[in-house]
Structure formats: C-alpha cells, structure tokens
Specification:
Blueprint lengths: L6 E3 L31 E4 L2 E4 H13 L6 H10 L5
Parallel strand pairs: 1-2
Antiparallel strand pairs: 2-3
C-alpha cells in the first residue's frame, strides 16, 4: 500500500444505494473532519475513523487504569517513537 493513499477501506457499506461523496471526500465518524484535514482515514461499513481519533482511543485504552503492562509500554513507545 502506498503512503499517498489517505483512505483505507475495510468491508462494504451495508446499504448498496449509498454513494460516496464527490472527490472521495470522507468524514471521521468521531471528530467529523474530512480526510483532507487528517493524516489518514480508515473506512469501514458505514463508519470512518481518522488516524488522530485512533491515537486518542489507543491512549485512552492503554492509560485508563494508570498501570501499564510491558506490552502496553512497548506500544506507547512505538507511538511516541521512544527508543528503549
């Protein structure tokens, strides 16, 4: 997959009559920003999420308990490009 592809699709829309907006404009289902304003967008069946909302969700899920497992710390280090 090339780095210039900003919208990655998973699955198909459930309603076959739905049409994509002109110029492949897609919106994040969480923050409502279009794919032209975010680094990447993942598109699923009737739902989209931008890379920035994914990072927020991952950080929340990892940090919600306040205690990091070794695996969670490795993931955070990768996200923040921290060398071990």
């Amino acid at each position: 997959m090339s780095d210039d592809k900003k919208v990655i699709s998973f699955g198909k829309k459930q309603n076959k009559q739905d049409k994509e907006e002109p110029n492949n404009l897609e919106y994040c289902s969480f923050c409502k920003r279009p794919n032209t304003e975010v680094p990447k967008m993942v598109k699923g069946p009737d739902v989209n999420i931008c890379s920035e909302c994914v990072l927020i969700a991952v950080q929340y899920l990892i940090l919600q308990d306040g205690i990091l497992s070794g695996q969670a710390q490795k993931i955070l280090n990768l996200l923040w490009d921290i060398k071990e």
